Amino acid sequence: MAIIAAVDSSDRAIAVVERASELSREYGVALHVVHVAEPTVDFREELIDVSADALNPEGGEVPKQRLDDLRTAAAETAAAAAADVDDLEAYEAVGLVGNPATAIKQYASEHDAEYIVVSGRKRHPLGQALFGSVTQALLLNANRPVVAVPHDRADS
């Protein structure tokens, strides 16, 4: 079991990791800080299996090394988000490659996540929360609870 902090490279990622860390401590489960790199190829709703053949924009196979490089860069982005959080206990930085919503959803299922923690984008002048496409897709389609950290919390 784990708490999944799904982060991007924005400043809002810190608030996501902070909230996920709180939940991780409360539930006594592992914290996984996850970032998904999107390849230049449009893989739609598929999570890239690095052992499978994939197409690149020129129509050939994407070298396994390129997929490994993308995964490594994504893990570094996740680690950078976690590094900016004070008093963060143990965590695992995870890099995935593919469609972000699909990859996060699949990863959360594989690790029996208690929660997926994501960032809301901003607040509408009337106080309504607005979400990015990844957050919205997870809120609507994830088979486990999703916590959306409000943008105003992310800015504080």
From TrEMBL:
Boundaries of every UspA domain copy: 3-150
Superkingdom of origin organism: Archaea
CDD domains: USP-like
One Pfam family hit: Usp
InterPro entries per the UniProt record, alphabetical: Rossmann-like_a/b/a_fold, UspA
PANTHER family named in the record: STRESS RESPONSE PROTEIN NHAX, UNIVERSAL STRESS PROTEIN UP12
Family statement drawn from the similarity comment of this UniProt entry: Belongs to the universal stress protein A family.
Name recorded for this polypeptide: UspA domain protein
Organism: Natronomonas pharaonis (strain ATCC 35678 / DSM 2160 / CIP 103997 / JCM 8858 / NBRC 14720 / NCIMB 2260 / Gabara)
